[in-house]
Amino acid sequence: MPLTLAFIVESLGGVLVGNPLLEIKGLAALEAAQSGHISFLSNPRYQGQLRTTQAGCVIVSAAMQEAAPAGVSLVVTANPYLYYARLTQLWRAHHNRHSSVGVHPSAVVDPEARVDATAFIGPLCVVERGARIGPGTILKSRVTVGEDCVIGARCILHSGVVIGADGFGFAPDGERWEKIEQLGAVRIGDDVEIGANTCVDRGALQDTVIEDGVKLDNLIQIGHNVRVGRNTAMAGCAGVAGSATIGPNCTVGGGAVVLGHLTIAAGVNISAATVVTKSIAKPGHYTGVFPLDDNASWERNAATLKQLHTLRDRIKILEKENKS
């Protein structure tokens, strides 16, 4: 079902320059868009694509308005990327063919679990005893919510998510391991989105906590007793070991790892593939990635790194000799 530009602007705001009756049949990238599509430009580096786009309408900032070709309608807004995000939500709301309320016949919900009447439990989901699912929350297919775990309001859990599996706890007993029963649960706040096949383990004694507004990508591991602060976002394949605390409004790049029992301050940005080995007390951008190189050069540099401690001692000796 197409949406007119007039309807889009009435719903989302912005200044329309062009034909309000133009019907939008889909969203597309600038280079692929056709006359029935709406696109957006948020990065000035891609203004060359704006000049040649075939889109019927483009969402732009005021600074990029003059770069648009003649005949293309524009929605002018201060933050085109944010406008695009809200447009995707508007589009989905008007084109959603699936029920967003109720329990799918193939789902298994324990009689002692509580599912809000406005939530949706998808195919093959499992909601165990004592779990609570809040209003407007959506569980896609094959999501498991373990016993006594709590999911807040308006959350989205994508396919294969596991909330409340046992945390990784074992005590050594000679050559074998003795299991430590995980007696806590998981508490997830409101407006949280969790990507496919991500696991959030239950706490050993206290609960693992994911605060309001957190966004977790696919294939992320959150260990037991971790606390993730509000509005923090983590990209795919990140891992957080047990009892780490990550503050609010942080970002964690794909494949990054935070070791256990560390504390990360609010407003910290961790680059992809970084291994965080110590607590971070100040906001900022932190990176710990050995640069990519051809293998022969990498091996030579890695060998040199092993000698840094010795080289430092030699430099200290030389500095002492020069002073005397």
Structure description:
This protein starts with a strand and ends with a helix. Helices cover 18% and strands 28% of the residues. It has 324 residues and is an alpha/beta fold. It is flat and about 80 Å long. It folds into 3 domains: 3-95, Udp-n-acetylmuramoylalanyl-d-glutamate--2,6- Diaminopimelate Ligase, Chain: A, domain 1; 102-286, 3 Solenoid (UDP N-Acetylglucosamine Acyltransferase, domain 1), CATH 2.160.10.10; 294-324, no CATH class. Strands 8-11-14-17-22-25-28-31-34-36 form a 10-stranded parallel beta sheet, with no helix packed on it.
Characteristics of this structure?
ten-stranded parallel sheet, 324 residues, alpha/beta, UDP N-Acetylglucosamine Acyltransferase, domain 1, 5 helices, 3 domains, nine-stranded parallel sheet, Udp-n-acetylmuramoylalanyl-d-glutamate--2,6- Diaminopimelate Ligase, Chain: A, domain 1
CATH class of the largest domain: Mainly Beta
**What structural class do helix, strand and pairing data support?**
alpha/beta
* CATH architecture descriptor of the largest domain: 3 Solenoid
- Helix share bin: 10-25%
How would you name the CATH homologous superfamily of the largest domain?
A: Hexapeptide repeat proteins
Low-confidence stretches: none
| Helical stretch tally | 5
Number of domains: 3
How do the strands and helices of this protein lay out in sequence?
Elements: E1 3-4, H1 5-12, E2 15-17, E3 23-24, E4 26-27, E5 37-40, H2 47-52, E6 57-60, E7 73-76, H3 80-95, E8 102-103, E9 108-109, E10 114-115, E11 120-121, E12 126-127, E13 132-133, E14 138-139, E15 144-145, E16 150-151, E17 156-157, E18 162-165, E19 170-173, E20 176-179, E21 186-188, E22 193-194, E23 199-201, E24 208-210, E25 215-216, E26 221-222, E27 227-228, E28 233-234, E29 239-240, E30 245-246, E31 251-252, E32 257-258, E33 263-264, E34 268-270, E35 275-276, E36 284-286, H4 295-306, H5 308-323
Parallel strand pairs: 4-5, 5-6, 6-7, 8-11, 9-12, 10-13, 11-14, 12-15, 13-16, 14-17, 15-18, 16-21, 17-22, 18-23, 21-24, 22-25, 23-26, 24-27, 25-28, 26-29, 27-30, 28-31, 29-32, 30-33, 31-34, 32-35, 34-36
Antiparallel strand pairs: 1-3, 2-7, 19-20
